[in-house]
Structure formats: C-alpha cells, structure tokens
Design brief:
Largest sheet of chain B: 7 strands, mixed
Structural class of chain A: alpha/beta
Strand order of the largest sheet of chain A: 5-4-3-6-7
Strand content of chain B: 5-15%
Shape of chain B: globular
Helix content of chain A: 25-40%
Number of strands of chain A: 19
Oligomer: heterodimer
Number of helices of chain A: 15
Structural class of chain B: alpha/beta
Shape of chain A: globular
Radius of gyration of chain B: 19 Å
C-alpha cells in the first residue's frame, strides 16, 4: 500500500464521521474570525438559540473595514463602523481565545496576527470565512476558507462538513536567483496551473526552494494557493517552523514542547505517497513576475511583452485576453517595462510581513518615489510588524523616499475602507487579486513582489528589480 | 435552508470565463450585516454605469444596456448559464446570497470554484457541472431562442431542453438530500454530538497542546 501524503495525515487525524458518499465531518482546531463574514453567522446562532461549541478556538479581529490613517477619528464610514462594532458585540457575547479590537496595539490582518501569536500550529485544522486562510498551510496545518453558513456550522459544532480533496504536489527545485522572492514563485506556479488548475485539490508545496524559504515566504506561497483554485496549500513543518513558533504565546509551552515537536516531525508526505497530480518546476528559471491582466494567471516575466489576442487560437482565451487588455487599458505587444503607474500598494495578507517590508526598504533606501506616482503606500500587516519595522527604521526609509507609512489592515487589497483606486488608475500591488474593480471600481491592478513594487515606485514604471 | 426539487425556468447566458465573486458582488456591499437585500447589486459594476453604494435605490440608476441581465428577454431568469471556473476568488457567501436574492435557482457551467460551489448548496441554489460541449450548446440555443426555458429536475438529476433533449448531472448524495428537504445542516450534525465529543477526547490525548 502506498504511503500517506501530508494532506492524508491531516485529514485522517481530524475525521470524526464519514457518510457512504464520502461526505465527512472533520474536526476544526482553530477558527479565525473577522468582521465581514461573521455577523450573519452569529445572528444565525442567536436565532436558533445555539452557543459556540468551543469558544477558545476563536481568534478574532477586525481588518477589512478598518482605516489605515487618522485612527484618532475612528471609523468614519457609518456602515463600516456598524460592521466592526457588531464584531465587538458578538465576541463580547459569545467569547473567544484572542480578540484584538480596532486600534489595539496587536490588531492587524487576521492571517498575519494568527501566526504571530502562535495560534496556528502544525497538525491543526484552521478555517476562516476568508479564502486566504490557505496562508496557514505554511505551518503544516490543513487550512482553508469557508462560507458564512460554514462559519456558523463550525461555531455550533466544531466540525466542518466536507469531502476530501484530491492531492497535488508542486515541487519547486533548484535555487532562486538574487531578487527573486516567494511572490514570484507563487505567480509563476499560477502561470502554469491557471486559476482553476488547483480546483478540487489540496496543493502540497515542496522542493529545495520551499525548504530554503523563511516562514514569511512560505506563508506568501500558501496564501496564493487559492489563486490557483486550491482551497488549501500545505507545506511540511521543519526546524524553521519550530524556530518561528518557539516562545510564542499560544505555542506549546516548555512542558509540552518536546512532545509537540515529536508529533510535528511525523507531518510530512511519506516517500512512497501517491499524489493525484504532480507539477515540477525549476526555481532557478523563475524571473520577477508581473500580472498584466484581470486574473492572476495572466502573468509574465518582467522582460516579456503583453500578449497579442490575434496570436491566440482558442476563442474563449482570445476573448479573455481582449477583455483584459480593454479593461487594463493596454495595447497588445507593449513591453511590461513600458507600463507606467499611478499608485503603488505594499501590503495585504500576501505581502505585509516584516520580511516583505525589509525587501521593499532595501530598494527604496536613499531614493525618491517618481513624480508620476500619486500615492505609494506601505501598510504593515499588524501592529507587531509595524513596531518591528519602526524599530528597524524602515518607516523612516519609506517616508524619506516619499512613501506613506500607514496603520495595519487589509487596506487597498480589496478597498473596503477608504484606500482605493479611482477609475483608470494603474497600481503596482503586492496583494493577491487583480480582478476587475478589486482595488476600486475601474482600477487597474498589476500583482508583483514587494521589491518589484518598490522598484516600480521609484522608476514610475515596471523595472527589473535585479538591475536596480 | 430553502428546498429545491424541480423548476422550469428561463435561462440567461453570461458568456465570460473566470467570473469572480468580486464581480458577482463588489466589496462595498459586503459591509452589510444581513443575509438579504443583495439582489439589486448582483454584478453591480457590469449592470449599472454609475458606482453603486449600499442602500442605493437601484431602480433609478443608469443601466448598462449591453449587459445581458438588462436585456428585456432575460427578465425573470432563474437559470444562469456560465463559463468555466465560475465563482472563483473570495469565499464571500454574499455572492450566492445576491444570486439567490435576484431570483436565480440554478447555475450551469463547465466548472465552479470549490468554495463558491459549496456555498450554493447552503443557500438552496443548485450548481450544475455540464461538459463544455453541452454548455456551448445551451449558450447557442439560448441566444438563438427567445423565452428559452430549461426544466431542471433534482430527483432524477436531469436537465431537459425545449427540444426535449436532456442531459444528466452529478450531485453528491448528501448535498442532494439536504437540498431536496431543505434540511438544517447544523441540526443534522448535532445529531452526531456524542461522536464529536468522543473524538475530542482522543484528539486531546494525541495533541494536548491544542486544548490549553
């Protein structure tokens, strides 16, 4: 019999019940909650007179609606304020393990704060009403996004009704070149799989490149698994995972540490495990990536030119290219490096951790943001990231260069707060989605790494970060 | 949850691949703390020529006449024809809430994004996966024939076209049962409460640090 994949091990160790058609109840260890996808779930519980099965699995914090400047003024949009106040009220009524209200010194993006406090651990199941929950797979946890009905289901039963996914191995071998980051790996993988290539799969990322990445880099890649269509991205835990977690508030304490590490060491795919699909790529070949269209799969290396729909034989794909070029205001065959920008956004659950900000600061140090860039903003992922960056002097580097240094939150990744693009504005963004209207109605988003975003801010157009 | 058994409904063709949930219901409408009232804002950025805000009276907003939902012949449509990877992107259940509130009960596409597909069943919407050839045929017939209605029957798992031609579709047993009976899934799961408690005991034994 073939060995088990990491996904098999995580699934099997949480299986509570299985129906004849494969529909299963899996036990949930960690439930992350934010203000946008939870109010209807809490309301559902209230109407049915139900309680939380285990309120000490909940880690909550508002992030989507919160402003990133002028915190002294509070939340000015009354609709946003009501949603944030509703989370406050619900957590007060139902309870939680961790709650950082708006303006708390530790508040931030839910997918940044969870790991920071050691509330995401190897061997766990993690859910959140948010598709970027896949981020937490970087720790060897089975983590994925769910809908609000499922949020309510997990709250009331501590289980999720689900069918097991197929398994895919994405193996990135070799060694990344200088200036190439986890974000470039994620985008390059999506360029191969397409945005639906991972649909129905849990993706395990492995190979020398993944092993060499920091936990921050690993989180960036797992975060983007959903953009390849996979609800979950997973990586086997190792010494780096242990080092990251040791001493964190909610990580196993000194008495439990040895037993926990021993268990975590079993969390890897067996040598003889079978995957339903395998994709291998050589990290050595990966170039800095830039998306040119309105789907993350519409991505190219920095040296390329925007595609020409006339050269596409498939009718549906041709229409997609035409639609994307039209929306993006681009002409076929334009060099990526000739694309001029209006705004730059460095932040989001994909790229707002300390390593991301350091990479951007290295590029920005001693330079000035180009005059055609209206706003270049840096939005740290959490209060902890912000303070760490300020201790390192990164805020000074950014503000000296003409970047705005903001308060933590989801910000312009999805523009639910005041940070947004105006119609026709073009932005280099370190976020995860370049969908139409994502960063503001009519806004045009190009996804890149933090270093590429900083380099674009300085040049006013895309440049190869390896040449600056 | 709302039950679904069978409908005969007007079809409406949305001829775009990779329709994401940001397009289905833009972010500004996610600020609502309710489950209802999203229908007027379904596909807001494609449907209207001005910027939509929560609470706006949509009957007074300028329509994008090129958008398929605004064509008189598709008024009252209950079956959406869509292309591959429908519902990709964010996990927002506001997307199926908006689709349901607008009046759609069925979506037929060659493929769906996983989270969106699950979310449909929780809201009495039947997502049907059909081959690309069948979907192509439905698009062509629907665009060529005004008043093109499909008969969607969940018990027999078939869709019948006006010509009498039909195709069958897959749906897993549990989702089918829940949808047919409009069952409350939480109530069903709580019938396994003892099993969940027993699991917790063993789980605590293996990974006690998850319970401190």
């Amino acid at each position: 019999m073939a060995g088990k994949t990491l996904y098999d091990k995580l699934w099997d160790s949480h299986l509570v019940h299985q129906d004849s058609d494969g529909t299963s109840l899996i036990y949930i260890d960690r439930h992350l909650v934010h203000e946008v996808t939870s109010p209807q779930a809490f309301e559902g519980l209230r109407i049915a007179g139900r309680k939380l099965w285990r309120n000490n699995t909940i880690v909550a914090n508002p992030d989507h609606n919160t402003p990133t400047q002028n915190w002294d003024k509070g939340i000015e949009d009354p609709v946003s304020k009501l949603q944030v106040d509703t989370l406050d009220k619900n957590i007060k009524e139902f309870g939680s393990l961790v709650y950082f209200p708006f303006k708390d010194k530790n508040q931030g993006i839910i997918h940044v704060i969870g790991p920071e406090h050691g509330t995401t651990l190897p061997g766990m199941t993690v859910v959140c009403g948010d598709s970027h929950t896949s981020t937490h797979g970087a720790f060897g946890a089975l983590a994925h996004g769910i809908g609000t009905s499922e949020v309510e289901h997990v709250m009331a039963t501590q289980t999720l009704s689900a069918k097991k996914s197929k398994s895919m191995l994405v193996k990135v071998g070799g060694k990344l070149g200088v200036g190439i980051t986890a974000k470039d790996v994620a985008l390059a993988v999506i360029g191969i799989t397409g945005t639906a290539g991972g649909t129905g799969y849990a993706i395990e990322f492995a190979g020398e490149v993944i092993r060499a990445l920091s936990m921050e880099g690993r989180m960036t890649i797992c975060n983007m698994a959903i953009e390849a269509g996979a609800r979950a991205g997973i990586m086997a835990p190792d010494e780096k995972t242990e080092e990251y977690l040791k001493g964190k508030q909610y990580a196993p304490n000194a008495d439990q540490w040895g037993a926990a590490v021993k268990y975590w060491n079993t969390l890897h795919s067996d040598e003889d495990a079978d995957f339903d699909a395998v994709i291998e790529l050589d990290g050595t070949d990966i170039q800095p990536q830039v998306t040119w269209g309105t789907s993350p799969e519409q991505v190219l290396p920095i040296g390329a030119a925007v595609p020409d729909p006339a050269k596409e034989a498939d009718a549906t794909k041709r229409t997609s290219i035409e639609n994307a070029l039209k929306y993006m205001g681009l002409t076929a065959n334009t060099l990526i490096t000739d694309i001029k920008l209006d705004k730059v956004f460095i932040g989001s659950c994909t790229n707002s951790r300390i390593e991301d900000l350091r990479a951007a600061a290295v590029v920005a140090k001693g330079k000035k943001v180009a005059s055609n860039i209206g706003v270049a903003m840096v939005v740290p992922g959490s209060g902890i990231v912000k303070r760490q960056a300020e201790e390192d002097g990164l805020d000074k580097i950014f503000t000296d260069a003409g970047f705005e240094w903001r308060e933590p939150g989801c910000s312009m990744c999805l523009a639910m707060n005041a940070d947004r693009l105006s119609a026709g504005e073009r932005c280099a963004s370190t976020s995860n989605r370049n969908f139409e209207g994502r960063q503001g109605p009519g806004g045009r988003t190009h996804l890149v790494s933090p270093a590429m975003a900083a380099a674009a801010a300085i040049a006013g157009h895309f440049v190869d970060v390896r040449n600056v | 949850m709302k039950a679904f058994t069978q409908i005969i409904g007007l079809a409406c063709p949305l001829d775009r691949a990779n329709v994401d949930t940001d397009a289905i219901i833009p972010k500004q409408f996610l600020k609502s703390i309710k489950r209802t009232g999203f229908g007027p804002y379904l596909f807001d950025e494609w449907r209207y020529t001005n910027y939509g805000e929560p609470g706006m009276d949509c009957t007074k907003r300028p329509l994008n006449q090129d958008f398929v939902l605004n064509q008189v012949r598709y008024k009252g449509a209950q079956v959406m024809l869509a292309r591959e990877n429908f519902g990709c992107g964010s996990s927002r259940e506001h997307a199926p809430w908006a689709i349901d509130d607008y009046g759609f009960r069925v979506i037929i596409a060659p493929s769906f994004a996983d989270i969106f597909y699950n979310n449909c069943f929780k809201n009495g919407i039947l997502p049907i996966v059909a081959s690309a050839e069948v979907v192509d045929q439905l698009f062509k017939e629907c665009e060529a024939t005004e008043g093109y209605e499909l008969n969607v029957d969940l018990p027999s798992q078939t869709v019948t076209m006006p010509s009498g031609e039909s195709f069958s579709f897959e749906v897993n047993e549990t989702s089918k049962r829940n949808l047919l009976n409009g069952l409350d899934e939480i109530g069903l799961t709580l019938m396994h409460a003892e099993k969940i408690k027993a699991f917790e005991v063993g789980h605590k034994d293996t990974q006690p640090w998850l319970f401190t």
